[in-house]
């Protein structure tokens, strides 16, 4: 096969290149070869060349598309994975919101129950007299009623008038039901130990609290010579 070389100026080259591209050729050489084939009557060869050129272009485009797709696929799979995880996150978030809503409703119901119970107890207490309450509780410490009774002076004065034992302790007053006080005094007089652990075994919770308050207020002392406790009121 022979080779033909021609020299042309820059402008002509650009025009030929534009013409070649417009007719589907990749290079000027292919375009000129096709023109020569046509001029010598070899249409079949020209068509084959054009067909080959067309196929080459299509293959090139397909190759480019495939390579581009190969580059895109990893990102597409990652996007799909992110979309799936986002969907799962939204589902979990909605489930948590439902649980929180249910919990808030339960807390509200529980709070309402507490408020109703407290109101009921307050109403029941308001119907009872001070001495009735003392008979039930045996001992009333002032700090326990500080938030519920404003006029505590009148409260303790009334208890004292109705026969309760009212003691001026350290930082607070204590009202004791008369019979309970007498029994408490006897129990203390029979104590022959000042050991805290032994005392805790002998006295119940209310007695122990009253015992500690009297001791703290210097109204109850232990006589070491007699080995007995003495109430100074």
List keywords for this structure.
70% helix; 9 helices; two-stranded antiparallel ribbon; mainly alpha; 2 domains; 233 residues
Number of strands: 5
In N-to-C order, the SSE pattern is HHHHEHHEEHHHEE
The major pleated sheet works out as:
3 strands, antiparallel
> Residue ranges: pLDDT <50 for 5 or more in a row?
none
Query: What is the alpha-carbon Rg in Å?
Result: 53 Å
The residue-averaged pLDDT reads 85
State the secondary-structure class: mainly alpha
In which range does the helix fraction lie?
55-70%
Helix-strand layout with pairing:
Layout (H helix, E strand, L loop, with lengths): L9 H13 L5 H12 L3 H85 L2 H8 L1 E3 H4 L6 H10 L3 E4 L4 E4 L1 H12 L6 H7 L2 H12 L3 E4 L4 E4 L2
Helix pairs in contact: 1-2, 2-3
Note down, in words, how this protein is organized.
The longest helix is centred in the middle third of the chain and has 85 residues, at 43-127. A hairpin with a 4-residue loop joins β2 and β3. It contains 9 helices and 5 strands. It has helices spanning 10-22, 28-39, 43-127, 130-137, 142-145, 152-161, 178-189, 196-202, 205-216, and strands at 139-141, 165-168, 173-176, 220-223, 228-231. A 3-stranded antiparallel β-sheet has the order 1-3-2. Strands 4-5 form a two-stranded antiparallel sheet. The protein has 2 domains: 10-78; 130-231, no CATH class. The protein has 233 residues and is mostly helical. The chain is rod-shaped and about 145 Å long. It is 70% helix and 8% strand.
């Amino acid at each position: 096969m022979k080779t033909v070389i021609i020299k042309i100026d820059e402008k002509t080259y650009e025009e030929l290149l534009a013409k070649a591209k417009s007719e589907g050729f990749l290079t000027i050489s292919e375009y000129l070869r096709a023109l020569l084939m046509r001029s010598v009557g070899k249409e079949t060869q020209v068509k084959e060349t054009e067909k080959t050129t067309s196929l080459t272009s299509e293959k090139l485009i397909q190759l480019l598309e495939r390579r581009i797709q190969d580059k895109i696929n990893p990102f597409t799979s990652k996007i799909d994975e992110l979309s799936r995880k986002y969907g799962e996150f939204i589902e979990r978030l909605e489930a948590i919101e439902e649980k929180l809503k249910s919990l808030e409703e339960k807390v509200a119901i529980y709070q309402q129950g507490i408020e109703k119970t407290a109101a009921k107890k307050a109403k029941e207490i308001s119907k009872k007299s001070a001495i009735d309450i003392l008979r039930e509780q045996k001992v009333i410490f002032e700090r326990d009623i500080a938030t519920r009774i404003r006029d505590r002076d009148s409260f303790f004065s009334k208890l004292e008038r109705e026969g309760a034992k009212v003691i001026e302790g350290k930082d607070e007053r204590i009202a004791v039901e008369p019979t309970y006080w007498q029994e408490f005094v006897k129990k203390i007089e029979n104590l022959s130990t000042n050991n805290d652990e032994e005392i805790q075994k002998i006295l119940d919770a209310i007695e122990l609290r009253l015992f500690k308050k009297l001791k703290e207020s210097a109204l109850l002392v232990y006589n070491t010579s007699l080995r007995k406790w003495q109430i100074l009121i």
